[in-house]
Amino acid sequence: MAATPLPSRRIGRPPATDSAETRRRIIDRARVAFATDGFDATTNRSLAADVGVTAGALYHYFGSKLDLYLAVDADVERCVYLRMNEAVDAVDGFFAKFEAVLDVSRELNAEDPSLATFLGARRTDIRRHSEIAEAMPLNRARERDFFARIVAAGVDAGEIPDDRAGFVTEFVLTLLTGLTDGESYDPDVHARAIEAIKMMLRGELFGPR
User: Fold this and answer.
1) CATH at residue 62
2) Residue range 135-141: average pLDDT?
3) Domain range for residue 37?
4) DSSP 3-state assignment of 116?
């Protein structure tokens, strides 16, 4: 007689060998939920059901929804800036570095649109929730410093006048905000928006004035 299969069961506290895998799965599912529904609409109970663990097991990994949100944010930042720093360090000058950032943005969005969508949703969550803003005060400064460094490379290369550096930094931040907030939902639209930015930087987007 064939053995009767054991009924499937939800995962409680996982053995140590499964801990890293389960934590990874929770973060990945939570990133999509926070990106799609925002902080308010996402609940630990719904996330636990989505991942296939008990609510108790989820609290074993993350003590609160805010803790989980911050873990997702740190994971996204690490993934995005690791790739961007590698690309930027491989080339010289503002235009080459900024195009490298755009290329990485396109690649990441094609691989996983929830990365950019989360970063866009995060801006809204920070405005709505003081506890999130207070828990991540360095994020905006880190982003600004990253792009200011790219602009400084352009100043050093003679591509950007020194007295225009601040304007260029704001311009770059505005462009990247638009990409994550408005165009990351569709990889094809996102890629076209990136190509339009490149054309503008090369003076190819508009006809003569």
Assistant:
1) 1.10.357.10
2) 75
3) 16-201
4) helix
